[in-house]
Amino acid sequence: MLHIRNLTFTHRLDLRVLLQDFSLTLNAGDKAVIIGEEGNGKSSLLRWIYDPALVADYLEAEGSRVCDGRPGYLPQELAHEDRELSVCDYFNADGDFWDTPPGELRRIARALGFPAALYTSEQRMGSLSGGERVKVQLARLLLHEPDVLLLDEPSNDVDIETLEWLERCIRDFPGIVLFISHDETLIENTANKIILLEQLHRKSVSRWSVADMGYAQFVAERRRSFDKQRQMAYSERREERKAMEKFRRIQQSVEYAQNTITRQDPSTARLLKKKMAAVKAMERRYEREHAEMTEIPVSEDAINIRLNYQRPLPAGRSVLDLELPELWTPDGGRLLAREVALRVQGPEKIGIIGRNGAGKSTLLRHIAQELAARENLHVCVMPQNYDELLPPEATPVAFLAPSGKKEDITEARTYLGAMHVTTQEMERPIRALSGGQKAKLLLLRLGLTETDVLLLDEPTRNFSPLSGPEIRAMLRAFPGAIISVSHDRKYIDEVCDTVYRLTENGLEKLR
Description:
Blueprint (H helix, E strand, L loop, with lengths): L1 E10 L5 E10 L4 E5 L6 H9 L8 E9 L3 E4 L5 H4 L3 H6 L2 H5 L2 H11 L17 H13 L5 E5 L7 H13 L3 E5 L3 H7 L2 E8 L4 E7 L3 H46 L5 H26 L26 E11 L6 E11 L3 E5 L6 H13 L6 E4 L13 H5 L5 H13 L4 H4 L8 H13 L5 E5 L10 H10 L3 E5 L3 H7 L2 E6 L2 E4 L2
Parallel strand pairs: 3-7, 3-8, 5-6, 6-7, 12-15, 12-16, 13-14, 14-15
Antiparallel strand pairs: 1-2, 1-4, 8-9, 10-11, 16-17
Helix pairs in contact: 5-6, 9-10, 16-17
């Protein structure tokens, strides 16, 4: 059992309450997902559950937790010191590795889809692909046979085969699984409890909710509940306006009569005094009724973004005609694929999938170099590593409005506000932003740039599942061409016209 009672997180820097009076009880068999926008405390909650010391330097935490059993924690980012280790040393640093039978090591490797020889590889952890790093971390975590799994974005950067394994792993795990994910399909296929963390009113008010149901039911019931509450609130306010209009007419009539009577008419004055007392009583009753009215529901809505400077691409225009005899790793140390051919024409939406380490991001960078020479195309890139394009010391406003013109700055601030970026965050250096905030910034840059071709590497990986439908709808409506790498199954199904799998023998067309 995992029991949390009356947990409150307060930022040490600005004293903002991140989480207030949060309580949760999980039992064996519970598969609970934490969702919400970035910066709402999801990762901090997992760290605190595993070890309160992990958040002590930036959060003041009040509350209690009881965890029966051994917890296992998978962080969102590999520690810097671990990045410098070889894969072999990374496993050797764990005492349980040497006590694990070889057959069990082979079983874990086979289930995760990597060769058992990787256990003894001298390859540096930091040089592995994102998905390979997640697999190695999961393998070491499972060596401990934990009773409670705390997984922070385990679905980031892993291929579809591993995602399907991860779904089975979560569903079949006999203990408790508490995880964070932006992958809606993974959430739909695994979670039986939804934990939503929100920051309302420009991140000044914290709110949380827990629902004992699957994700699809949660989204549908949340929408129905909000719609019903909103209708009731608006109906009550319409009736209140009618009643108040009638009340004001009576009040004005009595006040006018009081102001116009003469002192020679004491009986009328006494009557008007009684009427005014009745008016005051009516006013107090309306005030009480107003205080008891149904509140207009407030939620941390999905982000709002549009591609305002999009350029329609003629259907007959050739975008890409790629013939690549060999695709190598950037350092030239490994041959990834042979005979890679890709043709894109007009406003096609291309999705490229494949196993981790197959070279999808390398191929996308090669395509970017090919298209850079095209004068008749305007190409925008969203890389998997956001820091490739984001200047670390610039502010979000300066990045989006490099001209410094007042109208451009105003437009940038408006767009950032629509993406739930606070005024304070707009003026912080980009290096201080979270991965989700950096993703928003690059997506906004696409929206403010005149473009007809988008090259996107995992475009949906850092967005809340509640915002996922908005992102997909925006990209689907883009009138230009999109060439993308993704493991997001909803993105592939809803946005991509054509899907290829990158293999050692080139691109295999799936649909």
